Each structure stands twice: as structure tokens, then as C-alpha cells.
Amino acid sequence: MITEKTFANLALSFPGTEQCPHFERIGFKVTKKKMYATYLAKNNSANIFLTPAEQAVFCKIDKNIYPVPNKWGVKGATTFDLNVVPIEIVREALWSAYNLVLGPGKKLNRIQ
């Protein structure tokens, strides 16, 4: 199980990341850029913002990873049940989402 503190530490381990409120969630974004993940305490889940192609890959890995059931899900927003999804998979998804926000030519080459 990945706790709120562990998830926050993972998300904040990427350079230039900050934590901010996002409705009933805790958001994680690259400073002065878009958000790449949110955490929801009431069910210990995270939404991680991937490309639709990356989302398809992660959803095949584990049934506890699935598209957010709305228009954001179609765009790649993906829910991870942190009670059961292994930390290595969540770390990889965060790394992908973080790099997506950084954009071409600025990607972090290795997982922290």
C-alpha cells in the first residue's frame, strides 16, 4: 500500500515540483506549468495525467489502473488505486506524466 505521505514524496521527488490544493484533492505540478498528478485521501487513489497511448499500456498492467470516467479519462487521465498498485508502477507513471509536462527537449532521463 502506498500512503499519502509516500505518494507525495514520490511526486515531489521530481525537480521543480510543487504541491497545491486541487478541489478535494492534493495536486502536484511542475512550477509555472501544468499539473501532472492528483491525490485523493478518501479512497487513497491518484489520478496521473498520461498520454492516451501510455494510459492504454498502464491499464493493461493492472485492473486497479483505469481511465478516469469522464472527458479527462479520454485525454489520458488515469486512476491508480494506491492500496494495491505496486510503487514501481506508480513511480514509472509519475515519471511519464512529469516528462509530458516538461515537454520535448527538457525530459528527465532517469527515474528518481
Question: What would you say about this model in short?
Answer:
This protein is α+β, with helices and mostly antiparallel strands.
Q: Portion of residues in helices?
A: 25-40%
Rg calc: 13 Å
Please write the string of helix (H) and strand (E) elements: HEEEEHEHEH
Largest sheet: 6 strands, antiparallel
The CATH architecture would be Alpha-Beta Complex
List the helices and strands and how they pair.
Layout (H helix, E strand, L loop, with lengths): L3 H9 L4 E6 L2 E6 L4 E6 L4 E5 L2 H10 L3 E3 L3 H4 L2 E5 L5 H16 L10
Task: Give your account of this protein's structure.
With 112 residues, the protein is an alpha+beta fold. The protein has a single domain (4-102), classed as Aspartate Aminotransferase, domain 1, CATH 3.90.1150.30. Helix content is 35%, strand content 28%. It contains 4 helices and 6 strands. The chain has a 6-stranded antiparallel β-sheet. Strand 2 (25-30) and strand 3 form a beta hairpin. The chain is globular, with a radius of gyration of 13 Å. The model has no long low-confidence stretch (mean pLDDT 93).
Provide keyphrases for this structure.
single chain, 112 residues, alpha+beta, Aspartate Aminotransferase, domain 1, 4 helices, 6 strands
